[in-house]
Amino acid sequence: MDYLFFIFAAMKLFNTQDGNLLKKQMIADNTPRKTISFYKYCPIKNVAFFRNYLYHHLALLAVKGRIYLSVEGINAQISIEIENEQQFINFLNDIDFLKNIRLNSAIEDNGKSFFKLKIQLRDKIVADGITDPTFNPSNTGKYLNAQDFNTIIDQEDTILIDMRNHYESEIGHFKNALLPNVDTFRESLPVIVESLLDKKDKKIVMYCTGGIRCEKASAYMKHKGFEQVYHLEGGIIEYKRQIENLSLPNKFLGKNFVFDERLGERIGSEIIAQCHQCGNVCDTHTNCLNEACHLLFIQCKTCAAKYLRCCSDICAQVNTLPIEKQRALRKGKKIGQNIFKKGRAELPFMKK
C-alpha cells in the first residue's frame, strides 16, 4: 500500500473553504441527510495514514462531521446523505476493526448537524488524564441494554453515575443519578473514585451520551478495585431508540446535550433547566455570537431577542460593530477564556 502515500500526498485532505459559507450551503441544501455517531477502542498503528485514508473516502461520500483518531481508536460524529448510507456502511465493513460497528442515529435530526468534514489526530479519543501504564481500557464493565438498565437502577444497592459534564446534565439526566460538578471528563474520574471508596460493595452503573466515556470510565473503576461495574450500551442515544421500539418506560428527564449544531435533542418532555439570564424555564443552549466570547450558555427566546443572541450587553454591543473593528479589539488578546466555562463564567448576569 506504499503507493497510497504518494496518492494522498498529492491530494487535498482537509477543508480550505470558509466555514460560514459552508454552513449557508448546508442550510440551503435539501438533500436528505442523517446524523450518526460511532466509536471504537482499538489500537491503530499508523494513525496519520489511516486519517488520510478516511478523509479521502468519506469526502467522496459527502460525509460531514468531526472525527477524532488516536492510537487507542476512533470517535466519530458525522452527517451523511441518506442515499449514501449503505455505501458508507460497506466502507466501514471493509475495515477489519470497524466491521459491523454499532451506529447511533440521532433522535431529533434533519441531518444539518455538521457542515464540513474535520478529522483530527489526538493523543486519546477521549481525554481522560490517566497516566498509569497498567490501565487497560478494554477491561470494561458489563454492558446494559435499556430494559436491564431500567431494572438495575431501581435496585437499592445501585449507584447511578452521569459521566457527562455539568452543562450536559443541567438540561437532562436520569432520575436519582449522581451528577459530578465538573467541566471535563478527565476531572470526573478522580472525583467519582474518591467519593465512592467506601462503596465498593455497591453496583456502579454509568451512562453518557453515546457510550464512549462511560465505557472507559467503567474500565477505570474496575482498575481502581470496583467489581460490580455496569454501563449503558450506546448511551442515552441508544437508550431512547430502545425504549421507543420496545415500549419501555422512559427514566430520563429532559434533554440530551449533543456536540453538534443542534446542541440538544429531546428525550423526556420535562424542562428541568433555567435561562441563565432571566431564570425562566428553558433548556436551549446557545453560543454567544460575540466571537471574542463564544460562551456556551442557556438562553430563552426573550433574552435572545433582548441581548441579540449574546451573553451580555457588552457582548451585544461589540457584536454590532463592523467586523474590522471587532477584529481590532480582539487582536493580541486571549479571547477564548470563557468558551470552555460552559455557562459558569463569573459574569454578573449569570443566575446562580
Largest sheet: 5 strands, mixed
Unreliable spans: 5-10, 347-352
- Round the Cα radius of gyration to an integer and report it: 21 Å
Question: How many β-strand runs?
Answer: 14
> Structural class per helix/strand content?
alpha/beta
Helix content: 25-40%
Number of domains: 3
CATH topology of the largest domain: Alpha-Beta Plaits
Strand content: 15-25%
Question: What is the CATH architecture annotation of the largest domain?
Answer: 2-Layer Sandwich
The helix/strand order is HHEHEEHEEEHEHEHEHEHEEEEHHH
Q: Strands of the largest sheet, in order across it?
A: 4-1-3-2-5
CATH C-level name of the largest domain = Alpha Beta
Overall residue-averaged pLDDT value: 87
**Count, helices:** 12
Amino- and carboxy-terminal Cα gap: 58 Å
Shape, per Cα inertia axes? globular
Folded structure, characterized:
The chain has 12 helices and 14 strands. It is of the alpha/beta class. A 5-stranded mixed sheet has the order 4-1-3-2-5, with helices on one face. Strands 6-10-9-7 form a 4-stranded parallel sheet. The chain is globular. Mean pLDDT is 87; it is low at 5-10 and 347-352.
